[in-house]
Task: structure prediction
Amino acid sequence: MYKNKKINLAIIVPIIILAIIGIITIYSASTYISPTMGNLALKQTIWYLVGIILVILLIRLKNEYLYFHTWYLYIFGNILLLCLLLFAPEVNSSKCWFIIPGIGSFQPSEFMKIFLMLTLATMIHNFKATYENPSVKQEFIFLIKTLIVTLIPSILTFLQPDTGCVVIYLVIYISMIFASGIRIRWFIIAFSILALIIGSILGIYFFKENLFIKLFGTNLYYRLERIFNWSSGSGLQLENAKAAIGSAGLWGHGFNQTPIYFPEAGTDFIFAVFASNFGFIGVFLLISLIVFLDVSIIRLTRKKITDMDKYILVGIVAMLLFQQVQNIGMTVGLLPITGITLPFISYGGSSLLSYMILVGILINISLEKPRKYRYKLKN
Result:
């Protein structure tokens, strides 16, 4: 354990408040949630308690333990994703969860986000430790290796299908590689190639629907349909969520007074429940709290920390920011509906435990003494 060190309250206090907000809002959402799912507010409270135990365990182990077992975690995560495709039951046409009797569901892709961050941070650290002034060829080989490491879980997750998590993997990858300090030309080349590929696929989608279905199948076709039709707002989920938010006014309808039903009220659309209950004032305070937490995490980069910690912080901030913006944006109809949850607020045992692991990592970074790894981590 760390001695004579103070916990960073600028991170802990906002998370405690977000936990309270999340549990209260999930309780309010239970009005429109099937009773067969049980008391989700109580379950979320239990998951938070389990998460606290995880945080304490991580503080005792320290981040170094994770850093030196990164590849085992990465391989384990990919095995779980593969086992999902082979053995998991199909739920709502997806194979995203293992069903554990008496406990609930377990979603490996939530933990894969962390494993990917750790793996990329290790690879970047080893690359920087090996080459002080890498050549173009050395950078190219490094990029190919990191891209393969990212694509393996991305493909396995895409096949479930879980497009939202795949996008998060790519957000983590791009942000961490950018932070590694490689030449900007690689990003220009990558985005140019990506734009060409996406442009070609979309061209076939818009102008040759039959050919698109023949080449890529109906699954991808309907996923793109969902993305491109989001702006029409014709779905029950989005229409009712916007109605609940729009009718809330300055102070909202009041706690547990969500005026209209919409699906996924406790998970994907939890923000709509909160906004309808507490109105513009509540939304303003919630977003201010989220921004305060994000800024507090970013401020950790001002400490004298290891490069490993720096890369991990970049991945954490990128992931949280993307999920926060995407979830709130899709709830109010500004962004496509992707099934991405709101961190620390939406219901979900797997997602919440993964966030609590990140909390443990953040606390360790804030408590650790400045030091340097003078050797390569396991490659």
